[in-house]
Amino acid sequence: MFQALADPTRRAILDELQDRSGQTLFELCARLAMKHGTGSSRQAISQHLGVLEEAGLVHSRREGRYKFHDLDTSPLRDIVERWPVTDEERP
Q1: Residue 63, class by beta-carbon neighbours within 10 Å (0-12 exposed, 13-18 middle, 19+ buried)?
Q2: What sequence ranges are listed for the domain HTH arsR-type (predicted)?
Q3: Which CATH number fits domain 2-89: 1.10.10.10, 3.80.10.10, 1.10.60.30, 1.10.10.60?
Q4: Is the pLDDT of residue 22 over 90?
Q5: Beta-bridge partner residues of 22
Q6: In Å, what is the CA distance from 44 to each residue of 29, 72, 81, 85, 91?
């Protein structure tokens, strides 16, 4: 999961899915280009989505001809619950 989060484009994808879950690849590409200046191709974004799915951070579902991508924050919650930060450790 940490490797999936290391890439800035994948973090931007997660930000977009946080703002509005259930987007198609076309919608994500458009939003990434407009808001983040990402010039990545649909194929590149699709590959990034595959990495995020393998990490369990994104789930996809098909409805007819469309494939929708949804954010899943449960893997991140699991990390936070396993290793909580104490007040002494906060900057």
Answers
A1: exposed
A2: 1-91
A3: 1.10.10.10
A4: yes
A5: none
A6: 10, 21, 33, 35, 36
